[in-house]
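Example (one chain per record):
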Amino acid sequence: MKNKTRSLIEIHIAVVLFGLSGLFARYVGQPAVIIALGRVFFASISMYLFFRYSGTDISLGSKRDYFTLAAAGLMLAVHWTTFFLSIQVSTVAIGVLTFSTFPLFITFLEPLIFGEKIKINDVICAFVMFAGVMIIVPEFHLSNNITLGIIWGMTCSLTYAALSLINRKFVKKYSGRLIAFYEQGTATLVLLPAFFIYRPVFTVTSIFLLVLLGVLFTAAAHSMFINGMKSIRAQTAGMIASLESVYGIAAAAVFLGEIPSFNEFAGGALILSAAIYSTLKASKAAE
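Predicted structure:
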């Protein structure tokens, strides 16, 4: 029970940090792919220094593990690039809310991959969350930026669902920090060519923000989230992660002046309700 409670706390703290990370898409002042590159670069560097300082062995058990985590790193690169793209072409609300649909993918993919039985409560929660997103984003027009934001956000959602399932498998063998290190490192290599294509010019402020984004909002948060999955199912962790949309919209209202509409409040309430229910159900299962 203690392990499960600790895992829930770790995941909730990580999700708060994830929710605030969307603000960097506005403040850094760089293309989305460069922000994503800075994020994973500083995250992987900080984790490598931690491993060197602590004397932690970072080797994996097999070549197959290296290959699989490299594939996860590729998905992570796509995930964060499309996340920032979604926010930049639309709004923070669109980016975080479309991303929050990934538990819907997990609900149906997890039983297929791990041979588990689909639970009706999980299906209901997933669709309640999806309904919340539909309330917030009721109209789709292929010619406007909102639709583009939704497309990028759903791509972000799908890649994160796949990433979460890979993490669930490997968290039984390796620490969350080690898994995050390999994923962040691979994502850095995948995104590195963008630096030479865009040739960005950084200010002291933008570098500081990227360091903060990489070390605190990525390395620390990602490690806590993955580590929390040792005792929590990916579907439950996904439901909790949907709170990222609530934190992100609240932060955008405070720092960017993006005040949510009535529909955004209504949809956010559905998402929050489903996440709270899933968390309480997981806590009771530990008793």
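Caption: The mean pLDDT is 85.
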